[in-house]
Amino acid sequence: xxxxxxxxxxxxxxxxPEGEVKSVEDARLELASGNEGRVTMHVLEGSREEIEKQLRxxxxxxxxxYPEI
Length: 69
Prior knowledge:
Blueprint: E1 27-30, E2 36-39, H1 48-64
Antiparallel strand pairs: 1-2
């Protein structure tokens, strides 16, 4: 397997009371190349335990998209 470059993971977390979120938009970023990108934002709801479980599953699924890592 070819060596991979170091990577940067971009993420954000914020807890708000249930029912308070009206909308969520993708975050924008500018790359060193001058190109722009978007970061899809995800919403997880439930108890602390449910959110932690969903977050772990989401992270595992994210890395499944990149088996070469």
